[in-house]
Amino acid sequence: MVATQVDTGIPSLSSDPALELYRLMSKVHHSDRRVRKGLSSGEIAMSYWPVEGQEAMSAGAALALAHDDQLVTTYRGLGDVVAKGIDLPKYFAEILGRSTGLSKGKAGAMGIFDPDHGIAWTTGIVGAGPLIANGIALAETMKSTGRIVLVSFGDGATSIGYVHEAMNMAALWALPVVFFCQNNAWAECTPVAGYTRSTRLSDRAAGYQMPGVTVDGTDPHAVYQAVTEAVERARSGGGPSFVEAVAYRLQGHYFGDQMTYADPDELAAKRADPPFARYRQHLIDNGSATEAELDRVDAELIAEIDAAFAAARDAEPTAVDELNLDVFAGNGTELAAPVVQRASVPDGDTEDLGLVQAIHRTLDRAMAADESIVLLGEDIADPAGGMFKITAGLSTKYGADRVRDTPIAESSIIGAALGAALGGLRPVAELMFMDFLGVAMDQIANHAAKIRYMSGGRQGAPMIIRVMVGTAAGPQHSQAFEAWAMHTPGIKVVWPSTAADAVGLLNACLAEDDPCLFVESMKLFYGGGKGPVPTADYVIPLGQADIKRVGNDVTICTYGATVHAALDAADRLADEGVSVEVVDLRTLVPLDLTTVLESVRKTRRLVVTHESVGFCGPGAEIAAAAGTELFDVLERPIQRVAGSYTPVPRAATLEAACRPDAARVADAIRRIV
């Protein structure tokens, strides 16, 4: 790793850090007061989480960081981002929901993102930040930037498994991360003693073989020294540290919270001796500064804060026409644009590949061409090479840094992939079975899917999540949850039915600037998806359905392994004089509804089939759209053939009954032809 000279980016009052710390504490203190003043007077209305009492924590930590070191913080992050040097007018505008905000008012306080000042991400999900911080730190390490990542979180977050997963991964990979726990004595409204028996939360660091220290969070010097040591360790390649700073939150969990849960005498005593006023008096008493000098510092900062706040308050609200922008790159939507020129699989030499071999070949070629592509997942490196050998040999060829075995911790895998994407890499994360989406759904739905929107279109999350829909594996390893992802704005969903399609679609996903869920069917691993694949590389753009069979009497709309059941049904019905057109969607988001509607206009009949549960499934959306658009064209009711409203059973007889097959699809067609 390349070391970098520490540049705080903070104007120096003197060489004495005491005055630098005071300036930062004052800026945090008066920014917090200005927001609370606006709320108290009715000047503004917003959700807000005060930081009074925690000024020394943010000031000490920020001063220990270089200007371009990265910060990941939480919704109670005003102190952290202000001390880090955020653009104040844009910050205030963002938390007030104004058009001039950092993200055009789309994220608010829970999604502050200011890369120009090293603020890499903010999360409103307690404990989720450390997972993302790991990925950012991984990217910084692989790019040899010398930057470190400080992730700030509250004491309550240490009860959440995400934090422990993140600490384990950071220690395992010796990532340059500082875990900075701001213990303000309350997890929302519960005292520390009400949720843990740990006296020092930093003691937990020992379990991950990293240094842990607890310091007085009301003393900015103590915080600065502890974080400086942790930063130096991380920057020198020594790995992560855990710093716990202990103070007492002097305001409620949220603005308006009267803190009835606190002991009134204890709270009164703490408020009578606030850290900012105490430190101010300390500097005067020891001769570091005169009262007049500190008054001048305060006055300058108050003027700057008031001007920034007023500008934000008076800015225009975000226009309504911004609502549907920034969900996807290029302001795409859940529906694909009409295809002007449909991509085709190139002519020329081919080789017979199964789905496993096709995906392996595509990843291999992509990694050779682009060093930013990294793979993360359980057992994906050699000698295991992945449960289904899709990544076999790739770690031997490209190194363990780029093909990373991870702990069995799906949230950590997705969090690291997301952070790596924010850090400039193009990660491909394997979750093995699609069932495990549920384990990592917070990182997928609350973070990866929302990066572009919450950044106001400034940042995407170019990452792929590979999952496999199992078979003969029982209720917890055979589920298809594509509807979850389709219902989550910001994620693209792809499900190939052949090896040839898998190559082109995966290449498209590797070039996307949005997160993609790439679904693989276990049924197709064993022969069903095998076929000729061009030896030349190619791309099938997302949002282009494929007509796998041309027909005139009825349209079958489907995707994944069910395409083969549809083709089988079409063969059976051809003997009965029925001409069936099979439309393979290939991409579920963006959905090529235009091709489906064009086919149904011709055939005037529609059957929608998929192996996932029919109730509220993707077929319902397609049927509703077709029924609305083609009400006067359809000659018979739309038919849906899908999985039963049950878990996927292990017994072969029950699983066969649970999922649609060619016979059920053929029966549905007969009902309307």
Automatic annotation (TrEMBL):
InterPro entries reported for this sequence: DH_E1, THDP-binding, Transketo_C/PFOR_II, Transketolase-like_Pyr-bd, Transketolase_C
Transmembrane regions listed in the UniProt entry: none
Single GO MF descriptor: oxoglutarate dehydrogenase (succinyl-transferring) activity
Entry annotated with the keyword Oxidoreductase: yes
Required cofactor names: thiamine diphosphate; Mg(2+)
The enzyme's E.C. designation: 1.2.4.4, 2.3.1.61
Pfam families attached to this UniProt entry: E1_dh, Transket_pyr, Transketolase_C
KW Protease (keyword) present: no
Coiled coil ranges: none
Residues annotated as domain Transketolase-like pyrimidine-binding: 353-527
Function of the protein: Component of the branched-chain alpha-ketoacid dehydrogenase (BCKADH) complex, that catalyzes the overall conversion of branched-chain alpha-ketoacids to acyl-CoA and CO(2).
Entry protein name: 3-methyl-2-oxobutanoate dehydrogenase subunit beta
Source organism (scientific name): Mycobacterium bourgelatii
